[in-house]
Amino acid sequence: MKPADSYLRFVKWSDEDQCYIGYCPDLFYGGVCHGEIEVDTYANLRGVILDEIEHRIAKGEDLPKPTVRATRDLDFAAA
């Protein structure tokens, strides 16, 4: 399995911002990208995650252990 496949990622509509916001709670606190089209926001999120993992590996950093699962913690992660 690729490292990026271990991390939960999701896109959620924000009434406050009137756009979709992309999240990956194990790598980033809060939303990391946004867009008007859900699928485009998800694609952008995927790219951000891959870049972050590549950057951390290049610096010799350990990747955080994936802990957030879809069956729990999502309301907290998107707050």
Q: What do you see in this structure?
A:
The chain is built from two helices and three strands. With 79 residues, it is of the alpha+beta class. It has one domain. The chain has a three-stranded antiparallel sheet with strand order 1-2-3, with helices on one face. A hairpin with a 7-residue loop joins strand 2 (19-23) and strand 3 (31-35). The termini are far apart.
What is this structure, in a nutshell?
With 79 residues, this protein is an alpha+beta fold. Helices cover 32% and strands 19% of the residues. The chain has 2 helices and 3 strands, in the order βββαα.
Low-confidence parts, pLDDT < 50 over ≥5 residues? none
Quaternary class: single chain
Strand sequence of the main sheet, in spatial order?
1-2-3
Number of folding domains? 1
Outline, from the CA principal axes?
globular
Distance between the termini: 29 Å
What's the helix-strand series? EEEHH
Strand element count: 3
- Taking Cα atoms only, what radius of gyration do you get, to the nearest Å? 13 Å
Q: Largest sheet, if any?
A: 3 strands, antiparallel
* Relative helix content: 25-40%
What's the overall average pLDDT, rounded?
Answer: 89
**Strand percentage, roughly?**
15-25%
Alpha plus pi helix count: 2
Instruction: Name the structural class.
Output: alpha+beta
